[in-house]
Amino acid sequence: MQLQGKVALVTGAASGIGKEIADALAAAGAAVAIADINLAAAQAVAEDLKLKGCQAMAVDFDVTDEAAVEQGTQRVVDTFGSVDILVSNAGIQVVNPIDQFAYADWKRVMAIHVDGAFLTTKAALKHMYKDDRGGIVIYTGSVHSHLASPLKAAYVTAKHGLLGLARVLAKEGAPHNVRSHVVCPGFVRTPLVEKQIPEQAEELGISEDEVIKKVMLGNTVDGEFTTLQDVAQTVLFLSTFPTAAFTGQSFVVSHGWYMH
Ligand code: NAD
Prior knowledge:
Blueprint: E1 7-11, H1 16-27, E2 31-36, H2 39-51, E3 56-60, H3 66-80, E4 85-88, H4 103-128, E5 135-140, H5 153-173, E6 178-185, H6 191-204, H7 208-216, H8 228-240, E7 249-253
Parallel strand pairs: 1-2, 1-4, 2-3, 4-5, 5-6, 6-7
Helix pairs in contact: 1-8, 3-4, 4-5, 6-7
The structure holds nicotinamide-adenine-dinucleotide.
């Protein structure tokens, strides 16, 4: 119970990676806010955690809506007393070549990943900076924070951008005991990835099996998907690490796909 007495707010926690991160932080003793645009699913995750004896609440939260982010974060503070850990994780994917990429899709991807990271960080810092109590902000980046793939211009640009935000926050936050990180998974079989398999097969003119074996896992050392647990355990490790020895870092969790 290394996180007993701590409060974590996880965005996009109603599904996939965010849900697993919320489970891991709750199992370690944190009170967890399940913040998602899909309130019904967030409520189901929070209820499930409560049945397991954890402290949890659902928050209706569109990360691109400044007022909703401010109010949702305040509700978490009013209920649990603070925000010690922010995991800015909500995300979407749109695949298309640049010359056919709709500007509206570009703006939506950038808004959810980059604006959402900024807005949730700003809202959480208000509480973390109070009396320099501090905290940890973890962004879900991607191997695509470091590498490019065809068809993913907006996503790759957004995920690279998170490195910059985390690095600035590491410097600005240090005097207030705030640390930041970007956790960068390889492909994890969540709804976000399941959707891409047929889309990429069609765009690239190859079979779905080839998308998985060549495009998604071809550069790993073991041909394995990154698991939800791989990512959640990394977030837990960073959330419980006691000093600022690590801050402003990128942790790549990708079965060797990208090494740096
Ligand atoms: P997912 O689709 O399973 O879950 C994403 C969640 O975000 C959903 O619950 C959705 O409702 C929520 N969401 C979407 N838009 C939102 C908004 N505007 N405000 C609040 N919540 C919103 O996806 P996932 O695979 O778990 O992805 C989570 C994060 O991990 C994303 O940032 C994604 O880019 C990143 N990531 C995923 C993979 C992968 O292979 N799955 C790899 C690297 C990085």
